Amino acid sequence: MAALPARPHPDDVRIALAGLLGGLLIWVTGLGVRGAKDPLVLWDGRWPILLPLVVMAGCELLRRTRPRTGLLIGVAALTVDTITQGSLVTILMFTDLVYAAILYSPLAAARRVLWISGAMTVVWTVVPLAAWRRPEALLIGVAVGLVAFTPGATGWIVRNHRDAAEAARLRAEQTALLAEMDRAQAVTAERSRMARELHDMVANHLSAIAIHSTAALSLDDPKTSKDALAVIRENSVEGLAEMRRLIGILRDDSGDLEPAAAPTLDGLATLVEGARTNGLDAVLDAEHADSLPAPVELAAYRIVQECLTNALKHAGPGRVTVTLRQRDGSLTIAVISPYGRQDGPRAPGSGAGLVGMRERTALLDGTFEAGPAEAPDSPDGKIWAVRAALPVTENPQGAPE
């Protein structure tokens, strides 16, 4: 529970002043709760009424800062008020102290105050009735219940509603925080997906452009330059088309247009043929079912596409082999390329391709590895191997739709 303030709350000061002024007004008019001949009046006269009135008004200043202390002093003041002619305002301020003790005290103390007030009501109902055996004796219990238990029960109800409202507010804040975290994660995931798609769609064309433009600039051969320019133009047109398609998807917020169909494994032959056009000695060996889950097909296509792009940029002279096999509920992909320094022009790399392939595989709960491997049949004794295994399920967990 939060620490209570040391100074009285402004509202408590107003309540204390209102109670004191109201009590003085009743005192001036000469009104009292009991007459001078009442047997309970042991301290006769009008002046004794002021003492419990002033003390009770002072207790009102403690109703938030020290509610239990204020209630204890208030009980003493009410006891003194009982042996005087009494003041209705003193009794009303005491009921407010009971209410405040339930509302502002710690939970355990509030529960004790409620039980004590209830027990007092029962005792002051049963004992006088048993002693006097008259129905009028029940009025004592009713009076005690109105002064002690009723304000305590009211404070308990208000406290429960306040605690429930605070709990609801905290839950709303937590829900809003979780929603903001989910939104941030969704934005991050979408940005990563867009980065992968943009890299996979455009990097192949730009790599071919970079390599052939370097060759055209470094070789003084009109025919070679013309062939290089033809390849550059073809890749530029295809890259621009891919860019326009992606930008169109990103800008379309109407929801009326269907997104363009995702690449499938049926397009691998065309992909490999395009790599050959760019000067890469690539072959394809694929054995798989005619229909695979769309996320698996898209991931496999992009992995092969990125491997061919990397081979075009970095592989040494030799054949690049692309192999796909579907075995035991998974689709395995292996792309083997020569390991060594490329003789011709090279395009710079950033490492984003390997990161993208690894992310695509992880989204499908697959395995991925890439790196040099020993190959005695290779001229350099090494090859660069990329291997991925993608589980073939109807709805892979975390797979992008």
Give a short synopsis of this structure:
With 401 residues, the chain is α+β, with helices and mostly antiparallel strands. It contains ten helices and five strands; from the N terminus they run H-H-H-H-H-H-H-H-E-H-E-E-H-E-E.
Set down the secondary structure blueprint.
Layout: H1 10-29, H2 50-60, H3 67-82, H4 88-104, H5 107-132, H6 138-218, H7 222-251, H8 268-277, E1 281-287, H9 294-314, E2 319-327, E3 330-338, H10 352-363, E4 367-374, E5 382-391
Parallel strand pairs: 1-2
Antiparallel strand pairs: 2-3, 3-5, 4-5
Features:
single chain, about 400 residues, alpha+beta, 10 helices, about 60% helix, disordered C terminus
Describe this structure in words.
- Residues 395-401 have low confidence and may be disordered.
- This protein has helices at residues 10-29, 50-60, 67-82, 88-104, 107-132, 138-218, 222-251, 268-277, 294-314, 352-363, and strands spanning 281-287, 319-327, 330-338, 367-374, 382-391.
- The chain has a 5-stranded mixed sheet with strand order 1-2-3-5-4, with helices on one face.
- With 401 residues, it is α+β, with helices and mostly antiparallel strands.
- The chain is rod-shaped and about 130 Å long.
Q: Largest sheet at a glance?
A: 5 strands, mixed
Oligomeric nature of the chains? single chain
Specify the overall morphology: rod-shaped
Structural class: alpha+beta
How far is it from the N-terminal to the C-terminal residue, by CA?
48 Å
Mean pLDDT figure: 81
Percent helix: 55-70%
- Which residues sit in consecutive blocks of at least 5 with pLDDT less than 50? 395-401
